[in-house]
Amino acid sequence: MPRRAREYRKAHSPACACAQHRVLRIKQAVALKPTIGIVVNPHRPPAVSAASQLAEALRREGVPYRGPCAFDAKAPEGVPPETGAVLQDTDVLVILGGDGSVLASARLAAPNGIPLLAARFGGFGFLAEVEPPDLDAAVRRVLAGDYRIDERTMLRATLIRSGAEVGSSLALNDAVVTRGALSRVTRLRTETGSCYLATYSGDGVIVSTPTGSTAYALSAGGPLVPPTVPVFVITPICPHSLNARSVVLSDEQDVVLTVESSDEAMLTADGQVGVHLQQHDVIRVRKADVKARLITFGESSFYDRLQTRLQWGNRFGS
């Protein structure tokens, strides 16, 4: 990593104990002109156009940048080499796309501590901080150090087969075990720590972070959880039971799912990274040792977004 990039990230690190010292270091880092990485969803023409315009504006003002690079979160070949290169030499990542683009970028950027500025070029855009018309002004505020970092808990789902770890994946929203397209109900033994919790028979189980509580878990009947609350939410999907409900537990506790049924099942992280499961496979979900760092300007709260983007709290007949 270049020296200037190291200095910029150090100044913006949450490890700085003194608020005044942190402000001073941020001002010093601004003078270094942070390198801006631009990632765009190639399937959204307005986003592609805006990415090109942003790159040209940065070039004119002498701000170092990388990209724009197309990043399709659903591409089977995974992360393009040019996207990996952008992440290795970037201080701030600007994402032009939907929530899926933010989720995919967060999994890649979190290990390097790169903050994300998300512009809303998707549908719900619940994770987006900026509307398209305000993108240029938002980037200027970032360059001026006029922003805050909203750290979001991530989880790590690890697949264990025959006692050996097969692989693992980070997730910002959730880890989900679901039945196959043609299979019967899936039976999942669920434990937390060393305690047995329940055995769910149904379409699957969602283990979500607070950020993920507004996604798939919400559609499955789970509770809304503000992102600052240190919990996991376990939500069964279409359980074949009258007494199966969501459970909220401390994110300091591991969640362990064991596949008891022999029918087809799959584990997915954020709905984008998946692996087929076998009977007796064990999935261990725990709080990740890295966090997603989302840039915010503090102009809308979690509850504001529930109302404006999910229409939560609307009065009937009003």
Short structural description:
This protein is of the alpha+beta class and 318 residues long.
Structure in words:
With about 325 residues, the protein is α+β, with helices and mostly antiparallel strands. It folds into 2 domains: about 35-145 and about 295-310, Probable inorganic polyphosphate/atp-NAD kinase, domain 1 (Rossmann fold); about 155-290, Tumour Suppressor Smad4 (Sandwich). The protein is about 25% helix and about 35% strand. The protein contains 8 helices and 16 strands. Helix 5 (about 100-110) links the parallel strand 3 (about 90-95) and strand 4 (about 115-120). It is elongated and about 60 Å long. The termini are far apart.
The CA-CA distance between the termini, in Å, is 55 Å
Estimated radius of gyration: 21 Å
Chain-averaged pLDDT: 88
For the record, the CATH class of the largest domain is Mainly Beta
Tally of extended strands?
16
Ranges where pLDDT stays below 50 over 5 or more residues in a row are: 21-30
Write the layout of secondary structure elements.
Layout: H1 3-11, H2 19-30, E1 36-40, H3 45-60, E2 65-70, H4 81-88, E3 92-97, H5 99-109, E4 116-120, H6 135-143, E5 148-161, E6 164-171, E7 174-179, E8 186-192, E9 195-202, E10 204-208, H7 216-219, E11 231-237, E12 247-250, E13 255-259, E14 265-269, E15 273-277, E16 282-296, H8 302-309
Parallel strand pairs: 1-2, 1-3, 3-4
Antiparallel strand pairs: 5-6, 5-16, 7-10, 7-14, 8-9, 8-13, 10-11, 11-12, 13-16, 14-15
Helix pairs in contact: 1-2
